[in-house]
């Protein structure tokens, strides 16, 4: 395991990205480390990019930890450039982010000053780009590490020294990328900023005239939000699989009680996308019935950011086809079961191509979408007769056979003796050598004198009999 990022404290101790975790622990005893979560880091950076729209409509994500924001023409909205950079740093500090920011004539120069100047806030005067970046190290121009190492090998460590080299030999000796990065920083080459587009959010909010804990008022506010929320989904021709209902508590009560959270969010999951008012109302009502509000609620908001394009299914005439309606009813049932029992309690079985019965299926999340149009499985895969019901664990039974290793003629199961009136088999099932536990069984389909049919097998490794399923 290697170090990816360090904070200022670890950096002062000498911990650097690239160190192994053991090396870092030696350099900085008592070092606290966390596993890198790339997806969470990206989500956090995208949330900051969405915030950046308050400064400019053009917010570009650069790399894994940087934003390039084009504030050209935005100065008049804030007063001056100092006000822009102050707002950026203070707003992100309130979100508990430690940042360094810079404003310059070009994105390349701003990147260099923010990363290498050593200052939290840097503003380069207009037309003074060369003077501001000349003292910075070469890597601050976003030159790749290999080219940086070659430049350092010949004594070129600062931007000023790099700018004194002849342009004709610069690209030939160190690569085209070096010359291109220099031109970008000086404004001689264009740099296109691709604006980040945050995921669209649909929201409806109600603010109370006075904070309240009355459940009837909360329900009325939720109903009002639901109507606005579903109308927005209808207009955008989208639907949601997950919605959030957030209750914001009275700020004065939160201030007096530091242990109290500022808000509480309820998550409403659905198995299929929906924008139907009645369906959302049923699911949210389940949460409201179990809701316990610790203090007065100042406002509430119903929102979703996982929008999906969705055209409502066409209504069928004359009742000739009702599968679409059945899917909606099934989805509604599954959602309500999940609300009461939890997501892990509801699953569907999916066939797996495995001869061992215990491993011939897998559990999947509920899916009530239509199976029409899906690839049909070859009927030859279903030539083997299998019971519809399998026991969770094969039940051991006592069996009487006329000959050793022969078919059963009598077995004791479920507190009574069963006389075998008919049977079919044996069918041998063996697992491959790569399985941790070798399986070798002879299966029989037997019919008892009470009319029931069972699926039995003899374990050839232990010479024991088991019942594994029923034929309905």
Q: Secondary-structure blueprint of this entry?
A:
Elements: H1 8-13, H2 21-27, H3 38-51, E1 59-62, E2 66-69, H4 75-78, H5 81-94, E3 101-103, H6 107-116, E4 121-123, H7 129-133, H8 145-153, H9 159-163, H10 167-174, H11 176-186, E5 202-212, H12 215-236, E6 238-249, H13 251-256, E7 263-274, H14 277-290, E8 297-304, E9 307-309, H15 323-341, E10 348-351, E11 361-364, E12 389-401, E13 408-413, E14 416-430, E15 440-448, E16 453-459, E17 464-471
Helix pairs in contact: 6-11, 10-11, 12-14, 14-15
How would you characterize this protein structure?
The chain is an alpha+beta fold. The chain contains 15 helices and 17 strands. The chain has helices spanning 8-13, 21-27, 38-51, 75-78, 81-94, 107-116, 129-133, 145-153, 159-163, 167-174, 176-186, 215-236, 251-256, 277-290, 323-341, and strands at residues 59-62, 66-69, 101-103, 121-123, 202-212, 238-249, 263-274, 297-304, 307-309, 348-351, 361-364, 389-401, 408-413, 416-430, 440-448, 453-459, 464-471. The protein has a 6-stranded antiparallel β-barrel with strand order 12-13-14-15-16-17. Strands 5, 6, 7, 8 and 9 form a 5-stranded antiparallel beta sheet that branches. The longest helix has 22 residues, at 215-236. It is extended and about 100 Å long. It starts with 7 loop residues before the first helix and ends with a strand. Residues 314-324 and 368-382 have low confidence and may be disordered.
């Amino acid at each position: 395991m290697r170090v990816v990022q360090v904070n200022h404290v670890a950096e002062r101790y000498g911990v650097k990205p690239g160190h192994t975790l053991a090396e870092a622990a030696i350099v900085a005893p008592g070092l606290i480390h966390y596993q890198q979560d790339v997806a969470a880091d990206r989500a956090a950076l995208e949330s900051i990019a969405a915030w950046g729209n308050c400064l400019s409509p053009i917010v570009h994500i650069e790399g894994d930890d940087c934003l390039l924001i084009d504030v050209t023409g935005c100065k008049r909205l804030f007063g001056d450039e100092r006000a822009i950079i102050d707002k950026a740093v203070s707003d992100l500090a309130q979100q508990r982010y430690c940042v360094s920011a810079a404003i310059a004539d070009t994105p390349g120069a701003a990147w260099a000053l923010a990363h290498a100047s050593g200052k939290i806030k840097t503003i380069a005067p207009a037309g003074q780009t060369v003077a501001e970046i000349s003292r910075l190290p070469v890597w601050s121009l976003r030159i790749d590490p290999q080219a940086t190492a070659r430049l350092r090998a010949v004594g070129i460590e600062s931007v000023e020294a790099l700018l004194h080299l002849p342009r004709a030999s610069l690209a030939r000796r160190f690569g085209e990328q070096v010359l291109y990065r220099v031109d970008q920083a000086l404004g001689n080459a264009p740099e296109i900023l691709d604006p980040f587009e945050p995921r669209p959010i649909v929201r409806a909010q109600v603010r109370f005239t006075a904070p309240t804990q009355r459940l009837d008022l909360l329900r009325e506010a939720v109903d009002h939000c639901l109507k606005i929320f579903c109308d927005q989904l209808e207009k955008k021709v989208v639907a949601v699989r997950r919605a959030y209902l957030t209750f914001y508590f009275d700020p004065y009560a939160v201030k007096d009680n530091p242990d109290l959270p500022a808000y509480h969010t309820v998550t409403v999951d659905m198995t299929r996308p929906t924008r139907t008012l009645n369906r959302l109302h049923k699911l949210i009502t389940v949460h409201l019935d179990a809701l316990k509000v610790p203090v007065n609620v100042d406002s509430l908001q119903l929102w979703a950011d996982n929008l999906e394009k969705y055209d409502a299914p066409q209504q069928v005439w004359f009742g000739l086809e009702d599968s679409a309606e059945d899917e909606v009813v099934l989805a509604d049932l599954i959602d309500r079961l999940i609300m009461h029992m939890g997501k892990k309690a509801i699953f569907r079985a999916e066939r797996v191509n495995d001869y061992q019965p215990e491993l011939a299926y897998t559990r999947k999340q509920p899916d009530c979408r239509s199976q029409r149009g899906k690839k049909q499985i070859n009927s030859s895969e279903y030539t083997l007769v299998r019971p519809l019901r399998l026991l969770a664990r094969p039940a051991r039974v006592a069996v009487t056979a006329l000959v050793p290793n022969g078919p059963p003629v009598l077995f004791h199961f479920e507190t009574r003796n069963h006389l075998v009136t008919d049977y079919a088999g044996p069918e041998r099932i063996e697992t491959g050598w790569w399985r941790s536990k070798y399986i070798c069984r002879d299966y029989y389909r037997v019919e008892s004198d009470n009319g029931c049919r069972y699926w039995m097998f003899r374990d050839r490794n232990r010479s024991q009999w088991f019942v594994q399923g029923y034929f309905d």
